[in-house]
Write a structure and sequence with these properties.
It catalyses: L-histidyl-[protein] + phosphoenolpyruvate = N(pros)-phospho-L-histidyl-[protein] + pyruvate. Pfam families: GAF, PEP-utilisers_N, PEP-utilizers, PEP-utilizers_C. The protein has about 775 residues and is of the alpha/beta class. The longest helix is centred in the first third of the chain and has 27 residues, at about 140-165. The radius of gyration is 29 Å and the shape is globular. It starts with a helix and ends in a 23-residue tail after the last helix. Bound molecules: phosphoenolpyruvate and magnesium ion (MG). Phosphoenolpyruvate binds near residues 470, 472 and 606.
Length: about 775
Amino acid sequence: MLGILRSIVQEVNGARDLQESLDIIVSRVQAAMNTEVCSVYLLDPASNRYILMATEGLHKKAVGKVSLAHSEGLVGLVGSREEPINLEDAPSHPRYRYFPETGEERFRSFLGVPIIHHRRVLGVLVVQQREASRNFDEGEEAFLVTVSAQLAGVIAHSEATGAISGLSLTGEEARDVSFNGVPGAPGVAIGRGVVVYPPADLDAVPEKATDNPEGELAAFQEAVKAVQEDIQKVSERLSDKLRPEEQALFDVYLRMLGDNALPGEVVNRIRNDGLWAQGALKQVVNQYVRHFEMMDDHYLRERAVDIRDLGRRILSHLQEGDTRQVDYPEGTVLVSEELTPAMLGEVPRGRLVGLVSVRGSSNSHVAILARAMGVPTVMGLVDIPVNQLDGKELIVDGFEGQIFASPSAELRHFYEEICEEEDELFRGLEALRDKPCITTDGHRVSLLVNTGLMTDVVRSLSHGAEGIGLYRTEVPFMIKERFPSEHEQRQYYREQLEAFAPNPVTMRTLDIGGDKALSYFPINEENPFLGWRGIRISLDHPEIFLVQVRAMLKASEGFNNLQIMLPMISNVSEVEESLHLIYRVYHEVREEGYQIHMPRVGVMIEVPAAVYQVRELAERVDFLSVGSNDLTQYLLAVDRNNPRVAQLYHSYHPAVLQALVRIAQDAHSVGKPVTICGELAGDPGGALLLMAMGYDALSMNAASLPKVKSVIRSISREWAAQLLEDVLLLDSPHVIKSCVDLALRGAGFARYLRPSRSSVPVPTYESAR
Ligand code: PEP
Ligand code: MG
């Protein structure tokens, strides 16, 4: 049976469209089960009816004509019960419904199984048999369930393809289907999709020998030179948007094109193996890519993307005439299977409004650059039929990590209002820049920013931040090709410290591992989020940690506004060991003659174990800071970067809120201040709850800061405390979110609510995953 199943799935995967897929399914299943009838009914979301889409055994003319209401007949019963129904004598069942068009009266036994994709019933697969004596046995039932489970993904994919063109599975109009990925950079963009393909197809290159190696070498060198020039141009085009250290990404590209890197190996193959340049290039690129991909490491997989991109660019120059010019309209939303920083730079200045990448996560290079440039971005849109997005009107919701294609006028209007409100809000809030963040009853909260690149600092200052609550030091590490030297680190750190002096700048020590890896420090683990991460790596590599702390301390000379924060702490000994090393460096640096103060040191609370040891941890340090992104991930056991489980990732989950309350209480009970630097702090509703819990400072993306400040300045702490008390009695994250939204609406902040699936005023359903 497994063999049959595999071959059906293979055949269906090769089908041109949904109708062909369904026709293959019914004919192959009918044959495999040796039954008289096999039919597929799909649920049309527009009419909410099951429509007969394909059949083998019933009258073909009934296809597309016969339909049943959502809970009508045995098909409706299978769909609503969401489980198989196996009947020996279907016509005697009270729910049996007779359609003369199908010729169905001749068939007695009935087995129907629902086709379910990610909890949504897409349709029902039915087999029928004439004689009542033929009872479908358990094995047959199990086979049909397996077929249905395997095919649900294919059907959902076809549905997504149709939905992009505004059509449902059954050909009816279907708009405003959301495709869900993960947020890459916040903001909303409305524009036109421009799908950028890799410029040339390496896989299609044949491997040929050459009798003119010198000619091939010359052509290859020329192509490499041309690509170097292209990258230079792209880098220059972005130079006014990015600071020099961010431009370093392009240097990485250029270095890969250095003689000792990829081109050197291609040259060897042309010379030594007598291959033609294109074949040699293909071999070397594939070897590099395989090497990186086998490492099974997030960051390195992304380097494979860079290599493939470079390979295609060289190939495109080798294959003269393949200089396809892409037309980038005003309001370009750049879409690709694998967006690369170079692709981003090819869009003429001022025309890029949004980015959509099928691969990658919020930590990809492109996402880091997009955040620095303020371009709304959605990453990780797996399974979306990307080619279909070309030329389509797209809405990119970088807050929620979802996109909409060919939106209805209603949805477009909804998002246009959000864009206008964002602009208006920003302009209106500029006036608040220098005002304190204080409630109407006089409670003050510090608003800080999270930074990574220097561009973030520039934006933060213009938004009125009172300091840096989280400087993610791994970001400058990620855009380099080797560990930055102490001197280089000192320069990065000094820029951040100087920009905010005398206000505090909280530098988190290197937080790599999990999904944040360095190309030059590969970590290959089965379960990276539970593995070698954050402080665990720093303590195992004191040579890296000591250099980093030394660079921080030296950089702080003259400013003395440095705070050091330790990530992923799960026990007190990690804190003690870290403190020991920090003290050691402090004394050494002083002995070297630097006039520095001992920085305040803090611990991040981001794993459940730390929640239960807040007092013990707080007693050893100067402050605590909650990493609610990781804390939510670890408390709820939901990978924060996996769009498949994104619905389960909810920082308003009662367990998360209870933990946050406990952390604030326990920290204050031993007299230590507590900050929060996860995304929740930048959510206006979340910020209110956190303020009510007693958090002393909230650290967030620069873009969120003005909104949070305006909300806090408009309400009293007492009001927020009452809201907190109310929501702590609730047991569902969704109900809590609604309750907080309602309170914000009531307080006149409806415009601050981010669009979410629950507040978008049109029906949406899940993408093809
Ligand atoms: C967090 O986990 O909430 C946090 C702020 O750290 P990061 O997002 O960098 O893991
Ligand atoms: Mg974290």
